[in-house]
TrEMBL record:
Origin superkingdom: Bacteria
Keyword set, alphabetical order: Cell membrane, Membrane, Transmembrane, Transmembrane helix, Transport
One Pfam assignment: Multi_Drug_Res
Name of the protein described by the UniProt record: Guanidinium exporter
Protein family membership: Belongs to the drug/metabolite transporter (DMT) superfamily. Small multidrug resistance (SMR) (TC 2.A.7.1) family. Gdx/SugE subfamily.
GO cellular component, one term: plasma membrane
Amino acid sequence: MAWTYLFIAGLLEIGWAIGLKYTEGFSKLWPSIGTVLAMVLSIAFLGLALKSLPVGTAYAIWTGIGAVGTVLLGIVLFAEPATALRLGCVALIVTGIVGLKLVT
């Protein structure tokens, strides 16, 4: 279950990172509520995963999922650049996530 909790925590991190853009500096009520809720739930699921996973591994994977998902959604939702170098760096993060999963 720990890996499932960690994956959910990572997805929620993507949600709150993207949600921050929609809050417009926390000036919009509903996006702000959704963002804060995603933050709290993300930390809660990370905490559940940490019951049985090493903290370094879990934290790195949590932030990695969040970083990769946020970059990809930034490209799709906000027309951020999708250069080869940028995507190559994202691939390196994914490689690190997979590597940590395999050795844990």
